[in-house]
Structure formats: C-alpha cells, structure tokens
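FIELD: query
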Amino acid sequence: MDPMALGQFTLSNDKKTMIPHFELCLFTVDCDLVRQANSCGIDAIIVDWEWRGKEERQKNFDTQINHHTLDDLKAVAKIATIPIICRINAISADTKQEIEAALSHGAAELLIPMVRTKREVEQALDWTQDRAKVGILIETNAAVNCAMEMSSLPLSRMYLGMNDLCVENRSPHIFTPLVNGQLDALRPKIARPFGFGGLTLPHLGHPIPCQLLVDAMVRLDCHFSFLRRAFLKDTAGKNMGSAVSQIRHAIHCSREKSFQQLLASHRELQQCVERRAIVQP
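FIELD: result
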C-alpha cells in the first residue's frame, strides 16, 4: 500500500483538543479485579458469554475462549460501578433470550460477534429496543464487505476481530489486516466508535510490542480497545491503576506524534509482523 495513503486519520495540532476520550474495556469476572477497575480509570467491564462454536472454529489457533455465565454477570453487577458490556453468542435462535437475560441482570451494552449481514444487526437492535447500547464485532469477510451499511445503524461501537478474520482468511498473522492495507481501506467506511486489538503495558506486548499497537490505534483514530489476557498476565500482582495510567500516557504521547513519526512506527509494525508471520494450520 502507498505509504502516503496511510495516516489519513491523524489529527492536526489544531484538532487535538477535540480528540475524544479513549475507552479501555476490561475482560474479567474476577470480583477483586472489578473492584480495582471501578476506581482506576477502566471505562467498562466485559462479561464474555461467547463460546458456542468457537472452540471448533478456532481449533489449533492460540486464542482466548471464555465461558462466563449468567451467574458471573450477576456477581459483577453487584459490585461494578462502571458500565458492564456483555458479549453474547453469534446471532441464532437463542439470541433474543440471551439479550433478555443480559439486560435483566445488569448489562448496559451488548456486543454481537460474528455478524455477517446488516439485517442480523437490525434484528439485534429490534430485540434490544433501546434498552441498552449495541456494538458489533467485524470478524468475517461478509461483515467487512458491508461495514459501511452496518455503520449507518445506531451502534455504540464497531470492533475489528482479527482472530476470527485470520482464521477465515488463513492469514499468516492475526495482525495482517493492519499492515496489508485492509484496515486502512476499511476505516473510512466506519462512522461509529471504532477499535481493534488488545493493549497491555506499553513497554511489553508479544508478539507485537504494545507501543506499536498504540501508535496504530492513534493513527487510525480508534476510540477504544480491550484489556484481555496479555494485560491480566502482565499486571498480575501489580497496581492496576498504575498500569492504566501507563497505557493512557502512551496514548497521549502517540497523539502528540507527527505524521512522519506515526508512519515510521507503521513501517516498524510491518517489519515486525513480517518477521513473525507463520502459515496457520
């Protein structure tokens, strides 16, 4: 991809005061971690119900599959003072029941995975009936192809799920869409809060250094990201507030970088992905 086509979302200095708050959403049902998250700058807790078909779909891939339950949601709802997002299973005959259960027990927002058509998303919105926010995960080629249509709907967020996209395309690396131009082509089609990837402490991150991901998120005008297993592993036994502050400082510093600096970071990211590219099973 032409390097000069990159960074089209990099804000000029006179617009930096208009940059929205960057949301950090923590995947956990650990009540001790939820209590810490309440007061340390985490914006939302994600309870993850998505499991149906996931083990078979992601077999032989190093991905995270949670099995959070309704009881987990209830327990988190008792102590969380920040919003709870519930990722349900992909649209099926059980979706309406899952939505009702999530909304009845504390979820303020739903995340719908593996969407393929605008009609599926419209159905989820109809079932929710404005009782909660609804976001989607773009993790199929079908969703990528109709992302602009989906973006016209009143969605709270749109997240690019690189794991499943990698599985479907048998890509050599989960971050391939970030360096082959696919994400740069997709981003202008999305007019809703957008995010991808997961963050951890800025000086860590494997197989991709976290700072390179932060720079990419800033360059692509992302509004949020997730804190998942890497963050939980890297911060185990440490002060969560300090970790969150470090991530927010990294985001602030990236927002102060010039286009040329972000472009250099992108080139470094490309090289890093290419070095670690493997043929998936």
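FIELD: remark
The chain has a mean pLDDT of 88.
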